[in-house]
Task: inverse folding
């Protein structure tokens, strides 16, 4: 069942977004749609401790040629946050596929930021018929590419929900410049999570990468692949982007001067290679 949550809303003062709630068997999923519905579909998948809103600056750059779909993964944003299991990467991927089915989307390019790239990869493993191509933005290929923080920014259950200062400390490595001003709405998105969903989603990503590195998962799928990486990433070694070149036909685009979140730091520079790639690989609806 699809439930409207009150109709369109304004995104960034320019784009009108259709926002709805999809009632799935294991939790409601919040979905946003922008752009012409008969255009090639892009599914934008956010990273851990984020939401569909992290893509807001990118959306106006993509809707001229695409039907842009964003979801809040279970445990994030305006989607349900149940206690218990269900936050593993394959579970998140399955729900993303179910959401596209409910929307009547038969083919889409999957675009994942950070751990959202792992969800996109799992969806391609589960539903190769649905996935036309993949774009991974600052998605570490394996756990050995992770950059351990110099100081622990761990937040315990007694500190939940965290204060702004705690969230800024946790999120600071997500950007190339230590003084980058993290948008207020993204701080609020972290506070909307429960401690269980926050820790369970992080663990889900670690477990998925521990089982098998992403290039090894992607190679047998035969899907077109673009990897975009901010060269000054402070969470994942940007040199690890070269690991994806073991995937036949993979393209890697490094963005100098940008960090882990190029979709926020410089949307135009991030969208340029993405649009060139999708122009070659996207499939029009119908």
Result:
């Amino acid at each position: 069942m699809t439930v409207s949550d009150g109709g369109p809303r304004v995104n960034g003062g320019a784009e009108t977004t259709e926002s709805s709630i999809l009632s799935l068997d294991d939790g409601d999923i919040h979905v946003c749609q922008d752009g012409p519905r008969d255009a090639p579909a892009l599914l934008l998948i956010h990273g851990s401790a984020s939401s569909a809103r992290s893509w807001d600056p990118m959306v106006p750059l993509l809707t001229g040629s695409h039907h842009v779909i964003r979801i809040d993964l279970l445990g994030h944003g305006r989607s349900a946050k149940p206690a218990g299991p269900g936050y593993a990467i394959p579970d998140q991927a399955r729900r993303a596929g179910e959401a596209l089915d409910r929307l009547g989307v038969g083919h889409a390019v999957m675009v994942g930021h950070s751990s959202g790239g792992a969800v996109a990869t799992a969806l391609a493993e589960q539903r190769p018929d649905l996935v036309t191509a993949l774009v991974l933005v600052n998605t570490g290929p394996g756990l050995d590419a992770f950059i351990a923080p110099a100081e622990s920014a761990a937040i315990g259950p007694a500190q939940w929900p965290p204060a702004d200062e705690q969230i800024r400390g946790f999120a600071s490595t997500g950007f190339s410049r230590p003084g980058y001003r993290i948008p207020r709405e993204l701080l609020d998105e972290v506070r909307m999570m429960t401690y269980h969903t926050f820790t369970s989603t992080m663990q889900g990503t670690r477990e998925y990468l521990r089982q098998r590195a992403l290039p090894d998962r992607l190679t047998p799928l035969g899907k077109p692949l673009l990897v975009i990486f901010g060269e000054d990433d402070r969470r994942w070694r940007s040199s690890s982007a070269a690991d994806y070149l073991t995937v036949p036909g993979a393209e890697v685009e490094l963005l100098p001067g940008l960090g882990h979140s190029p979709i926020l730091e410089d949307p135009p520079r991030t969208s340029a290679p993405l649009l060139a790639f999708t122009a070659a690989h996207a499939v029009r609806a119908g």
